[in-house]
Amino acid sequence: QVQLQESGPGLVKSSQTLSLTCSVSGDSITANTCYWTWIRQPPGKGLEWIGSIGYEGSLYYSPSLKGRASISRDTSKNQFSLQLSSATPEDTAVYYCVRAPAGGGMDYWGEGTLVTVSS
Questions:
Q1: Distance CA 66, CA 26 (A)
Q2: Residues in Cβ contact with 115 at an 8 Å cutoff, skipping those fewer than 6 apart
């Protein structure tokens, strides 16, 4: 069974970099035609796609983040990570890591982790 687990600080100060890591088990982030994705949900708002890293290392980002997001991976640990620079309180959200098969949809989600950006 595929499992994803987010980890990282739950509190970040404004202007600092928000950093999260997703540990994947039950699947390899390089072996299948999947896109390993970060999504967030601010309090009281809908889901927002942040970006994805493909099984072959391709990168995709939401333009709305204006270049602040960076996704990387550690294939030896089967992990992928998110860094969001110049954080503001508007970046406060529950952050999810997700598996998105190339054929469409998102089939496995982490439980989510709340990150609060203090002003």
A1: 33
A2: 8, 9, 10, 11, 12, 18, 20, 91, 92, 93, 94, 95
| pLDDT tens per residue across all 119 residues of the chain | 999 999 999 999 999 999 999 999 999 999 878 999 999 999 999 999 999 999 999 999 999 998 999 999 999 999 999 999 999 999 999 999 999 999 889 999 999 999 999 98
- Residue 112 burial (C-beta neighbours within 10 Å; 0-12, 13-18, 19+): middle
Closest CA to 90 of 18, 20, 19: 18
Residue 97, token pair as written in the block: 């890591």
Strand partners, 49: 39
Least Cα distance to 91 among 72, 63, 119 occurs for 119
Measure Cα distances from 78 to 45, 62, 97 in Å.
Answer: 31, 23, 13
Q: Can you state the percent helix, strand and coil of the chain, rounding each to 5?
A: 5, 55, 40
